[in-house]
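Technical annex, item 7. During the second reporting period the consortium partners agreed on a shared format for inverse folding records so that results from different sites could be compared directly. Each record opens with the tokenized structure and is followed by the designed sequence. A conforming record, contributed by the partner at site C, is shown below for reference.
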């Protein structure tokens, strides 16, 4: 039985982690199915935006620790390189916005998955836990890269070293989430946000994401040059002409991604 469900509507693909009895913990099948769903979305021109959420009361409790009991002490670097890291690489390179709809607890690699999303909507019942040190591990699946960049070194060190839960309001204060909504409004809000992104010019959003990630590594001169290169691409798109025409004609723009 599948443990990752997908459903699309109006150019928005929703990916649901679906092992609610185990708080959507990542066992091997879920990693394989999530990667496959992401790759399929990347290729599918009808998908403009992704939403990732969890079934039941959790977003994801991270690595399935029961699987670790049975599989034994394999070299965890293999698991990261072969299964978790490709998920993060794919999300990072995906030229489509990804919205996390965090419905409940996001722990360990579940928290890392949230960090790899571009925008985050959280239920007021969400909790975020860098649970890794509780089980004698270091933060992985991108957390050591994303978290200090999102919240600063001192906050990130506290979250990672103490592994204490952060509630939704605290996550909003730290800038980890874009907005917090009542639990029963989560998917309405996330799909509303995704719908707005789906109506935006896809090429411009794709190049914005590329430039933002590149900017984390570049110096100002390099980044100014990259902006000039990418703007050259955006400036030649039909969507740019459409945006300018819509402005002049005082009507909503219809962006096609060309
Ligand atoms: O190994 C590698 O490949 C390296 C990569 C590692 C990446 C990681 O993610 S390491 C971190 C792993 N995750 C954790 O350490 C979190 C473990 N879970 C918890 O701390 C708590 O469950 C939560 C704080 C997330 C939620 O607490 P609570 O009280 O709301 O729920 P609960 O009662 O603890 O859990 C409910 C059920 O989900 C329970 O099952 P049961 O007893 O009803 O049959 C529990 O065992 C199960 N569950 C929760 N987390 C996991 C899990 N089952 C397997 N793996 C889990 N991670």
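Designed sequence (site C submission):
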């Amino acid at each position: 039985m599948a443990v990752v469900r997908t459903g699309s509507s109006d150019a928005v693909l929703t990916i649901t982690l679906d092992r609610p009895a185990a708080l959507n913990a990542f066992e091997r099948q879920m990693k394989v199915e999530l990667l496959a769903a992401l790759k399929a979305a990347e290729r599918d021109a009808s998908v403009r935006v992704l939403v990732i959420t969890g079934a039941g009361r959790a977003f994801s409790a991270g690595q399935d620790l029961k699987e670790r009991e049975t599989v034994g002490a394999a070299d965890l670097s293999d698991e990261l390189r072969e299964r978790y890291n490709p998920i993060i690489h794919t999300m990072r390179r995906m030229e489509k916005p990804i919205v996390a709809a965090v419905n409940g607890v996001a722990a360990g690699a579940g928290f890392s998955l949230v960090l790899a999303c571009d925008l985050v909507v959280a239920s007021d019942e969400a909790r975020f836990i860098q649970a890794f040190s509780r089980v004698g591990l270091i933060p992985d699946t991108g957390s050591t890269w994303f978290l200090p960049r999102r919240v600063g070194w001192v906050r990130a060190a506290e979250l990672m070293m103490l592994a204490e839960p952060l509630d939704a309001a605290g996550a909003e204060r730290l800038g980890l989430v874009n907005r917090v909504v009542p639990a029963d409004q989560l998917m309405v809000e996330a799909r509303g946000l995704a719908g707005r992104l789906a109506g935006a010019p896809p090429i411009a959003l794709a190049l914005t994401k590329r430039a933002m990630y590149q900017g984390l590594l570049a110096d100002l001169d390099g980044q100014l040059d990259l902006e000039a290169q990418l703007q050259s691409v955006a400036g030649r798109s039909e969507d740019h002409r459409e945006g300018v025409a819509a402005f002049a004609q005082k009507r909503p723009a219809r962006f096609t991604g060309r």
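The two ends are 38 Å apart (CA to CA). The pocket of T3D is lined by residues 22-23, 25, 61-66, 68, 76, 79, 105, 107-109, 129, 131-132, 134-135, 137, 140 (CB under 6 Å). All partners now use this format for quarterly exchanges.
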